[in-house]
Design brief:
mainly alpha, 5 helices, globular
């Protein structure tokens, strides 16, 4: 029972990253507005994070390098929270925007926690 549940968990955890990773390529120009203005490169970061998210999906589903990749994914999500969502929350001009940024903070914190759990599960696996 543990192995099928672990496999299902890995699949379900990967689905958002697969979808969002692909969206980084299909909607890169629209997403480039979320890149902080102090960070040069604009759309480059959208493509790079799309690649890292799709790579994380491959790693988590195949079980290859999963511990390290899940830790890096957690770090990436925490960077999103600190560099995009919290500043957005603090500068939001409407209650609706504040709610959106708060939901993104909570979503990415939860996903980061899930990534760390996956990294712990795979800590002892080659």
């Amino acid at each position: 029972m543990k192995i099928p549940a672990l496999l299902l968990g890995r699949i379900l955890f990967s689905i958002p990253f697969l979808a969002i990773g692909l969206m980084h390529f299909t909607g890169a120009e629209q997403m480039s507005g979320s890149v902080p203005s102090w960070l040069p490169g604009g759309v480059f970061w959208i493509y790079l994070t799309g690649v890292t998210e799709l790579g994380a999906v491959a790693s988590i589903l195949t079980g290859k390098y999963t511990k390290t990749v899940a830790q890096l994914l957690a770090l990436q999500l925490l960077i999103y929270v600190c560099a995009i969502h919290i500043p957005g929350l603090l500068s939001a001009s409407s209650e609706a925007l504040k709610q959106m940024f708060m939901m993104n903070i909570l979503k990415d914190l939860g996903l980061a926690g899930g990534a760390l759990l996956i990294s712990h599960i795979y800590a002892d696996r080659p």
